[in-house]
Input
Amino acid sequence: MDERKRDSMIAYLRHRMEEFGITPDMLASALASDESEKTNARYRAVTGETWSGEGEMPQWLRQAISAGQSIEHFALSPKTAEKAQGKRAVDWEKDPFAGSPLARSSER
Output
């Protein structure tokens, strides 16, 4: 993204935050709570969606269970959960090897 587009996006976001009464502290708090929800994941789908086991069961897990899959299949062990936290998302648009055997053979 070029500098002009970036500055324009920041100005737009600041304007919308002001319009809705959102302060930077409120935004930081919301982002921090999102991060804490991710760290408490007990179940994870292959797509990366997670569920802590609290509250309503997410649609992806309900569908898998109704299709015959066991909930234990999606359970994370403590080591797996720690490993997933440190994992970075892959930006496939910028990956020159996306879809090639080289992309599939490396450990992510």
About this structure: The chain has a mean pLDDT of 77. The radius of gyration is 19 Å. The CA atoms of residues 62 and 71 lie 9 Å apart.
